[in-house]
Write a structure and sequence with these properties.
The N and C termini lie close together (about 10 Å). With about 160 residues, this protein is α/β, with parallel strands linked by helices. It is built from 7 helices and 7 strands, in the order βαββααβααββαβα. Helix content is about 40%, strand content about 20%. It has helices spanning about 15-25, 60-70, 70-75, 90-100, 100-105, 125-135, 145-155; strands at about 1-10, 30-35, 45-55, 80-85, 110, 115, 140. The strands form 2 sheets. Strands 2-1-3-4-5 form a 5-stranded parallel sheet, with helices on both faces. Strands 6-7 form a two-stranded antiparallel ribbon. The model has no long low-confidence stretch (mean pLDDT about 90). Helix 1 (about 15-25) links the parallel strand 1 and strand 2.
Length: about 160
């Protein structure tokens, strides 16, 4: 089985989750950062996983564009979708804002992997906003290896 993970990341959390996920998946797994790497021909893969981090309520534009551009191919594949963010209260809304409805409907797996605030990865303005809005002033992680494991199991079964 050939598996492609396409992810977008701003501060590294989605990349970290993609690497953890890659190690738990069966078959030949290729992970690509949509902002840095060339995305291979998706028709050559059995399973395609798409995910990214939520920043200011939105997933990366490149992830949205990838999903829309490849929607017809993705609908015929076994697809998994994930998001990384610190807002666990609005996960359903964030998924709906991040991925096309047709893709959400046919996805084999959908999961929230948690998020991180890593202050060294942020600029001054981002640190200021996190401190004021989230009331957090030190590195914080809510990444869930349990959720990544559940997701991997669903993909491996597919």
């Amino acid at each position: 089985m050939k598996v492609l993970i396409v992810y977008g990341t701003k501060h590294g959390s989605a990349e970290k989750c993609s690497k953890l996920l890659k190690d738990k998946l069966q078959g030949n797994v290729v992970a690509v950062n949509i902002k840095k790497d060339n995305v291979p021909d998706i028709t050559l893969f059995d399973n395609i996983i798409v995910g990214g981090s939520i920043y200011m309520g939105q997933i990366q534009k490149e992830i949205k564009d990838f999903c829309l551009k490849n929607l017809s191919v993705l609908k015929d594949k076994k697809v998994g979708l994930f998001i990384c963010c610190m807002n666990d209260k609005e996960v359903h809304t964030l998924f709906n804002n991040s991925f096309p409805e047709e893709l959400l409907t046919c996805a084999t797996a959908k999961e929230y992997f948690g998020g991180e605030f890593i202050f060294n990865n942020m600029n001054f303005f981002e640190r200021f906003i996190v401190k004021k809005v989230a009331k957090i002033d030190k590195d914080t992680s809510t990444l869930s290896e349990e959720n990544i494991n559940k997701f991997a199991q669903l993909i491996n079964k597919a």
